[in-house]
Amino acid sequence: MTPTQIAALIAAGAFVLLVVLLAIPLIKLGRTLDEATTAIRKAHENTDPLFTGANSTITHVNTQLERVDGITANAKTISGNASALSSLFTATLGGPLVKTAAFSYGVNKALRSRRKRKQEPAGKHFRTRKGGRK
Q: Region labeled Disordered — which residues (predicted)?
């Protein structure tokens, strides 16, 4: 064998060694990609029931929100009616009721004052000042 052939054999051996050393990481990378593909496939299969459940939950929540909207609209109507009824009561009965209460208070006060005067002796109707006359 000539030195050129020996050098070619050494170069070929080194190249085979290089290919083998590079093939190991490539094989491991291929396995990793296969596992990642399997994991993605399983995740995709498991998300369908999850999305279906989420859609049904959202539909149920929307139904409940529509009911709540109806309830709040009815509550708003009731509060508006109560306010209108209160205003009507104040307008129709408030003024006369206040006048009646004031009149009855005045009559009651006048009657009390008159009863007190009847119960006092005749000379005590006039008030006296300090050091002054009756």
A: 113-134
